[in-house]
What we know:
Layout: E1 17-20, E2 25-28, E3 31-32, H1 33-39, H2 42-51, H3 75-94, H4 108-116, H5 129-148, H6 162-170, H7 177-190, H8 197-207, H9 212-223, H10 232-242, H11 248-257, H12 275-289, H13 296-314, H14 324-334, H15 342-361
Antiparallel strand pairs: 1-2, 2-3
Helix pairs in contact: 1-7, 2-3, 2-15, 3-5, 4-5, 4-9, 5-6, 5-15, 6-7, 7-12, 7-14, 7-15, 8-9, 8-15, 9-15, 10-14, 11-13, 12-14, 13-14
The site of coenzyme A has 18 residues, from helix 14.
Amino acid sequence: MTAEGLEGVVVAETRLSDVDGERGRLVIRGHDVEELAERADFEAACVLLWTGELPRQIAHADVRGPIAHADVRGANAHEDMRRELGRARVRAFARLPALGDAFETGDGMEALRAALSHLRASEIPESRLGTELTAAVAVFAAAWARKLRGSVPVAPDPELGHAADYLRMASSHGSDPARSRALDAYLVTAMDHGMNASTFTARVVASTDSDTVSAVVAALGALKGPRHGGAPGPVLAMLDAIGEPGHAAAWIAAELAAGRRIMGMGHRVYRVRDPRAAVLERAVERLRATGLRSDRLDLARAVERVAVASLGERRPERRMAANVEFYTAVLLDAIGLPQELFSPTFAVARVAGWLAHIAEQRESSRIIRPSSHYVGPPPETHAAA
Length: 385
Ligand code: COA
């Protein structure tokens, strides 16, 4: 019996996250994703993911300067993470001149893969591997995007929170508190999600006792694919191609008739709407309430309704609904990130999850090595001469 696509196969026990596909629930280290995205910024969620403790937050990501309430219990962990990530962003920026031709490509995931490959795990103290890699993904992605548009990279501001600083470095619109908070909501929502393809890849590499940089680079390769992290760019292109709600039904019918998939729809595990879609949809709504225009939100909602209905008619036995990528596209667009940065920004978030899984995998001494069922020809029988 083969388990095609390893569907339903349990390959690890994990304390990190749990995906309930029937009920549409995602729990990250004991916290529902909706609650976590509400309470935690990226730094706090990293502390949770990497240590199991959600620290008290003492300042939001966009607040500068000394932390006012460092005596609050647990606040130091948040402050330390913020400081460490800030310093690591500065160090990552200093590496840019040594990255050779890594950014000579129009594909951000290719650029990230090449740039991260320059890091050497043996040269980074073990205790700093997490923050160095997490910071490097953000700094390299932002620098590549600047270069693509013919401008010079913007140096990090270590005083800022990770989300605010990434937005400042990557977007030509800079950052502001409302957009930084929306990006924080995205980063927290997207940072971990059970045994997804890139996380599995990271764990396979870690199980061979290979180094953490190699595991992260391999995971990035898996994330790059359009069936995984490559979907939000095409979702935005789809919304643009549809243009207005009234055109959605005909457009989707034509795509399905041509045998193409509707991006941002369907999921291996969820049989209901991905809970992360709702978190991101709410974050965009909040942005709108602050006065930011997002014309695409109403269009996206209309397209979602039509797509769910059309897919349901075609495959009533396999319920398909919007996945995280659908509203990722709307949110990242609303905060001013260009489409070519959508997948790299997914990596900015998910690297935190990979690192947690790599560390957890290292607790096991067994290599991940499944079996295959041979269906090729039998060995030729050579008649003795
Ligand atoms: N649009 C149209 N049809 C879809 C579809 C979509 N988005 N997603 C799945 N299907 C169909 C497939 O064509 C297949 O039909 P078939 O049996 O007639 O060939 C069937 O549903 C099962 O697809 P399968 O690829 O086996 O499902 P999966 O569970 O392995 O795949 C995804 C899950 C996410 C890869 C898949 O739903 C997809 O490609 N979605 C679009 C890309 C996307 O949004 N990715 C981001 C994921 S977070």
